[in-house]
Amino acid sequence: MKDKSKTRLALKKAWKSFENILPSVLTVLLLIGFILTLLDEQAISRLLGADFGIWGVVIAAVIGCITLIPGFVAFPLAASLVAAGAGYAQIAVFISTLMMVGIATLPLEIQYFGKRIAAKRNILSLIFAIIMSCIIGVIM
Amino acid sequence: MARLKRFIKRYRFFLLLVLINGLLFIIEPELGQETAVLSVHNLLEMLSVIPPIFLLLGLMDVWVPRETMMKYMGKDAGIKGGIFAFVLGSFSAGPLYASFPVAAVFLKKGVSLTNVFLFIGAWSTTKIPMMLFEITQLGSKFALIRFGLNLIAIIVLAIIMERTTTKEDSEAIYKMVSRQTDEK
Question: Are A112 and B100 a contacting pair at CB < 8 A?
C-alpha cells in the first residue's frame, strides 16, 4: 500500500513540475515558430552559403544561437551548405552554437538555474564554439 | 476571477505571442500560417518528449534515494562520476531544453555541479546516434574533430562553471530546483 501512495506522489510531482514550466515552454515554442519563419532553410542557405571569412563565422554564430533546429535537419542542411561553398569554420560554429547555445530557450533555462548561471553557460558555450571553429577552420 | 487573473499573469508572454500570431494572420496570412504551423509542429514534438521525461523524473524523485545518486555522481564520486554523467547525457534523446528538468532533479539529489554540467554538455553535443548521422552527412574527419574538440570544451566548461559558482549561487539554484518539484 505504501508503494502505491509513493507512486501516486511521483505522478503528482511529475505533473506539478510539468505544469510549473508550461508557460515558459509554450512561450519558447511560439518564439521558435516566429524565428524559424524568418530564418527558414532558404534564408540560412543564403546567409551561410558562401565563405565570407570572419564575418561568415559571426553570422553563423548569431544564427546558431537564436535558432533551434534538431540535428536530423541541421546536418543535411550543413552538408548542402558545404556543397554550396560555405567554409568548414562557419559550419562548425553554426552546428556548435545550434547545439550548445539557446537564446530562445533562455527563459526556460533561467527558470531552472537562475539568470547568472544560465547567462554564464550560454556565453561560455559561445566562446568555446568560436574557438573550436577557428581550430577546425585551420585543420580542415 | 482570481484564478483567471493568475492564469493570465502566468501565461502572459504566451498569450501575447498568440495575439501577435493572430494579428500576423490578418496582416500577412501566409506568414501567419507558416508560424502557426511551425509552432504546432514544435508543440507536438514537445509533447512527445517532455511528458515521458517528467514521468520518469517524478518516479526517480520518489524512488531513487539521494544517497544512491550521490554515491554515483556526487562530489566524492570522482572521475567515475564524471564519466557516468557524460555517458548518461550522450545516450539521451531530445532537444537541449529537455535536459534542464533532468539536471534539476539531479541537483536536488545531490549530483555535483561539475557532473550536472557534464551531463548537460553531453546531452547537447555528443549524442551517439547524432554523431553517426553527422559522419554520414559531413564526413568522418569533420565529425570526429568536432567531437574531440567538443569533448574538451564540455569538460573545461563544466569545470569553469563549478569553480565560478559561489556557495550562495548554488544554494539559490538548489532552492529554485526544490520549488519546481515540491508542493507549494
Answer: yes
**Host domain of residue B14:** 1-48
Residues B105 and B176 in one domain: yes
Residues 6+ apart with CB under 8 A from B147: B126, B131
Verify that B42 and B68 share a domain, yes or no: no
| Lookup: cell for A74 | 541541421
Domain ranges of chain A: 2-139
Whose CA is closest to B158, among B122, B131, B108, B105? B122
ipTM above 0.90? no
Residues from chain B that touch A18, judged by Cβ atoms under 8 A, are 50-51, 54
Using one digit for the tens of pLDDT, what is the confidence trace for B118-167? 999 999 988 888 888 999 999 999 999 999 999 999 999 999 999 998 88
Q: What is the pLDDT of residue A1?
A: 52
Do residue B73 and residue B37 come from a single domain? no
- Across the interface, whether the CB atoms of B134 and A68 are under 8 A apart is answered no
Nearest by CB to residue B14, choosing from A27, A75, A109, is A27
